Amino acid sequence: MESTVETDSYGRKKVVNPCMEPCAIEKGMRLIGGKWTGSIIYHLKDGPVRFNDLNRMLGGASKKMIDQRLKELESKGMVIRKVLSERPLAVTYELTEFGRSALEFLEQLRVWSEKQGL
Amino acid sequence: MESTVETDSYGRKKVVNPCMEPCAIEKGMRLIGGKWTGSIIYHLKDGPVRFNDLNRMLGGASKKMIDQRLKELESKGMVIRKVLSERPLAVTYELTEFGRSALEFLEQLRVWSEKQGL
DNA sequence: CGAGTAGGTTACCAAAAGTTAACTAATTGA
DNA sequence: TCAATTAGTTAACTTTTGGTAACCTACTCG
């Protein structure tokens, strides 16, 4: 993963390990870097949350977005959808172990972000 | 920043601190979550890199992308562009202190990402 | 001279992403 | 009966993105 540039005797440049396809950082970002994705994971940190509650917590995100993101996260195995009861329909979303493992990084991001006073 | 849902005596839900606009995580993500942005910062970690070298390191990213991202990062104060010499034109990009401060969690992201074997 | 380097810029286009608002069906509370 | 809740879905639309490839000036190497 360490790509470096070397200069040959004629002054020509060559890259030793170019990231031919997205490297780890890029892949990670594509997993949790989508709009609202990080926020959703973060808001699930304290346990299961219901769809509409999540919707209310993330003012600014539309239901469609939240729905879409939750489905992505579910398909990636970071979130589980649980039906508490049909009639009346009640559903919660919670983090899997994998999902939970992203919290560490997200927490650091949050701290950094707040420190910069963004 | 702690948004929670409360239920009143009638069973109605209210959110106490909704993230009305993007919260810290969201803002952070928008700063470094763009395609290739994290990778660019990460590849500048060992010091100044020239434009075309960066281009070679990030196989898969086009010049246009790199150019665009570098300008964004410059405008956000995370990267500085330095002209080493005109005639022949030589330019390097390096991280500012602010840019460097992002390396800490990018490194964590990298480790996490690799651990998942993505 | 012709090719290659450096550091970009430009136009064009296709595809993806995101927003809004309306609508669903079933249930409950006033 | 009216309103609101639940968890979504859908269509229509706009915006943003990202990729390609050509072009630019200036310089050096053989």
TrEMBL record, chains A, B:
**Could you tell me which residue ranges the HTH hxlR-type domain spans?**
23-118
What InterPro entries does the database record attribute to this sequence?
HTH_HxlR, WH-like_DNA-bd_sf, WH_DNA-bd_sf
Which PROSITE patterns does this entry report, sorted A to Z?
A: HTH_HXLR (PS51118)
Arranged from A to Z, the UniProt key words for this protein are: DNA-binding, Transcription, Transcription regulation
Report which superkingdom the organism of origin falls in.
Answer: Bacteria
SUPFAM superfamilies registered for this protein in UniProt: Winged helix' DNA-binding domain
Q: Does the keyword Cytoplasm apply?
A: no
Pfam families for this protein: HxlR
The protein's name in its UniProt record: Helix-turn-helix transcriptional regulator
